[in-house]
Design brief:
InterPro entries: PP_kinase (IPR003414), PP_kinase_C_1 (IPR041108), PP_kinase_middle (IPR024953), PP_kinase_middle_dom_sf (IPR036830), PPK_C_dom2 (IPR025200), PPK_N_dom (IPR025198), PPK_N_dom_sf (IPR036832). By secondary structure, this protein is of the alpha/beta class. Helices cover 35% and strands 22% of the residues. Strand 3 (165-175) and strand 4 (178-187) form a beta hairpin. Helix 2 (18-34) packs parallel to helix 4, helix 3 packs antiparallel against helix 4 (83-109) and helix 11 runs parallel beside helix 12 (389-399). It is globular, with a radius of gyration of 27 Å. 42% of the residues are buried.
Length: 700
């Protein structure tokens, strides 16, 4: 009865739970691992991604839920459930996902490994010669790094690290005729490869490091009886929402550095453990970490499938996966050899990554660093590539005496340390560096190059949806704009003055920004479509984003739907709106695109009675984007570029190879091309100039 009551309550809510919606997104990623049309190594890749996704989900989303539970704060989920019933529902769903994840690995992936040139074997499956090699590796490399940490009446409970494989070894000693069990923990160092590799004539053998340690565990427990050896892995709370300071005078960089340390001590929110663990040890862990069976996930094979990346990236298999086509020239840029400083004086350029390379942006920055006419560079940075060309160019610019202002967002989750390190390098070179804006996270992506040209100064602006990261720009779909248009230049200059100083600008003409105005401005655009629909004028909304969660925006979309506005949403991940509900959202459809590329572009289209307004930029429709982040959307004013952005949305809506249609109950079904329907793969078509031929006058 209780289960039915909870299910009914969820169904009655006009919103979908953010966290349950996210888990459904990870199912769509898992669906890629099950897709037999993909190469085997691509299927491995997607399986590894589901594991990475789930780790972050537990650290951040489940961690956030435990902030409420542990601090005694009330929380009402979008599903209508309070903290404890929602915790049960969420963890039950997570258990179901993990079961399906390992069912995929054990029944669909593992049996195909040998056929593709490798296998994952235990010690008992090795030859005698191979076992000797493994024994030598253990003695020389692994053994010196292992540290047994006993927990008993004389030794405190050790600090076990987040997401490291750990053995809990239960031993028994007899003292004064009384048997006593105790548990000792042995963590496997994170700087050792997960697999030891052996070459056989016809294949590569990967031996999990935990199996090597298990094989030799007695070396650490001489003259002691081992009762059981249990492998497990913990995930700690990594969410600091309740702890972030509102004190504007605090040393923000030091605050973030101290936060990084607390990740090591965050409360345990998940325990992954192999089958048939010691009940004695399990009781110790449950009591120590205040967890119960809902937090405990029994794993039926390799714990932490992120380890598959070692196989995917192996030199012998690197070329076996998806072969990315060469990038094509942007439609608005005739060739790669153009002098960008000259070309941009008369033309705006829309870049659609990864189909268009990020090279025009990076090359412009590198040239600006060397150009004597360039006076200064201003840039926001959220995530950078390893050995970043962007950082190198900014350093070079500073060395050449140019003014360089950089805002490094040190709250970019899991990139905090890198951004602090790179920011300090730039500071030493003489750059003006800002580490975030108090309680706000700077998520917007902007760059400005100021160049003296004769008697005037020209400002070259780049603004987009993607990070200044050359590596992810080849894997994420994004849109960005290069321009010298004075309206953009003025708006972006004003925006930089806001984030580097204490300016409060007047209204922007082409920018829509948060935390000040973005939600209000988007609501006004939605309401305008509703007014047109009520007047019998043409109306329509098409929005492509990563996540839709903000209730105020959702409610306005519901009202617009009731007014007769056709609304088509392309939401890759979280979607808290219910589409197709009678008397609520009958005119709203939602699809999610999940495939070779991570859909990261944000585009907002409003029909405006035949004079469309289209915006691109960094913001999703989320509370955090509107209230806790510095974001910007930019109007695509140029008519040709506007038509190109409409075409991007048009083909996203047509896609029938990577798309999932959201149902009213929050579930998704894969969209299939009908027998008489043309196959449209949105991750291929933009490499072809033929898509330009589709002159789309209106989308809805």
């Amino acid at each position: 009865m209780l289960i039915n009551k909870v299910s009914d309550q969820i169904k009655k809510s006009k919103y979908i739970s953010r966290d349950l919606s996210w888990l459904r997104f990870n199912y769509r990623v898992l669906d890629q691992a099950r897709d037999t049309n993909k190469s085997f190594f691509d299927r491995l890749k997607f399986l590894a991604i589901t594991s990475s996704n789930l780790d972050e989900f537990f650290m951040i989303r489940v961690g956030s839920l435990y902030n409420y539970l542990d601090y005694g704060k009330e929380r009402l989920d979008y599903s209508g459930l309070r903290e404890l019933p929602f915790r049960k529902k969420l963890l039950d769903y997570a258990h179901r996902f993990v079961n399906d994840q390992y069912l995929t690995f054990n029944s669909e992936i593992k049996p195909l490994c040998e056929k593709h040139g490798f296998d994952i074997l235990k010690i008992s499956e090795l030859t005698e010669i191979e076992q000797k090699k493994v024994d030598s590796y253990f003695k020389n490399t692994i053994y010196p790094m292992l540290t047994p940490m006993v927990f008993d009446n004389y030794h405190g409970f050790p600090l076990l690290m987040n997401q490291l494989l750990t053995f809990g070894v239960v031993t028994r000693t007899t003292e004064e005729q009384k048997a006593q069990d105790r548990v000792t923990f042995v963590q496997i160092p994170q700087n050792l490869a997960r697999f030891y590799e052996l070459n056989r004539k016809d294949k590569i053998v990967f031996v999990p490091i935990e199996e090597i340690v298990r094989w030799k565990i007695k070396k650490l427990f001489r003259n002691v009886d081992i009762v059981s050896v249990n492998l497990f892995r913990i995930t700690r709370n990594g969410d600091f929402t309740l702890e972030e300071s509102d004190d504007l005078e605090a040393d923000f960089v030091q605050e973030i550095k101290s936060k990084l340390k607390t990740r090591k001590k965050g409360r345990v929110v998940r325990l992954e453990i192999e089958r048939n663990p010691s009940q004695f040890m399990l009781k110790v862990l449950k009591e120590r970490w205040t967890i119960d069976n809902a937090n405990i996930f029994t794993i039926n094979n390799l714990i932490d499938l992120r380890c598959l990346w070692q196989i995917i990236n192996h030199r012998q298999f690197k070329d076996k996966g998806f072969k990315q086509p060469s990038s094509v020239s942007p439609l608005s840029l005739p060739s790669d050899g153009v002098d960008m400083f000259e070309y941009l004086k008369d033309h705006d350029v829309l870049l659609h990554h990864p189909y268009n390379s990020m090279e025009p942006v990076v090359s412009l920055l590198e040239r600006a660093a060397e150009d004597p006419a360039v006076l200064g560079i201003k840039q926001t940075i959220y995530r950078l590539a390893d050995q970043s060309r962007v950082t190198a160019a900014l350093l070079k610019a500073a060395e050449n005496g140019k003014h360089v202002s950089v805002l490094f967002e040190v709250k970019a989750r899991f990139d905090e340390e890198r951004n602090l390190r790179e920011g300090e390098r730039l500071e030493k070179a003489g750059c003006f560096v800002i580490y975030g804006i108090s309680k706000y996270k700077t998520h917007t992506k902007m760059m400005m190059v100021i160049r003296k040209e004769g008697e005037k100064v020209t400002r070259y602006v780049h603004i987009g949806s993607g990070n200044y990261n050359e590596q992810t720009a080849r894997l994420y779909t994004d849109v960005s704009l290069l321009t010298t248009n004075e309206v953009y230049a003025h708006d972006v200059s004003e925006f930089f003055n806001v984030i580097t100083g204490h300016s409060r600008p007047n209204d922007y003409k082409y920018l829509m920004t948060s935390p000040k105005d973005m939600r209000h401005d988007l609501i006004e655009l939605i309401r305008h479509e509703a007014k047109n629909a009520k007047k019998g004028l043409k109306s329509g909304i098409v929005i492509k984003i990563n996540s839709l969660e903000d209730k105020e925006i959702i409610d306005e979309m519901y009202k617009a739907s009731k007014a007769g506005v056709p609304i088509k949403l392309i939401v890759r991940g979280i979607c808290c709106l219910r589409p197709g509900r009678e008397d609520l959202s009958e005119n709203i459809t939602v699809k999610s695109i999940v495939g070779e590329y991570l859909e990261h572009a944000r585009l907002y289209y409003f029909h405006n009675n035949g004079e469309p307004k289209v915006y691109g930029g960094s913001a999703d429709c989320m509370v955090r984007s509107f209230d806790r982040r510095i974001e910007a959307l930019f109007l695509i004013a140029n008519e040709e570029l506007k038509r190109e952005s409409i075409n991007i949305l048009y083909y996203n809506l047509l896609d029938n190879q990577n798309s999932y249609i959201m149902r009213e109950d929050g579930t998704y079904v894969k969209k299939r091309a009908l027998a008489n329907e043309e196959v449209v793969d949105v991750h291929k078509i933009f490499y072809s100039k033929s898509y330009v031929e589709a002159l789309v006058a209106e989308l809805v």
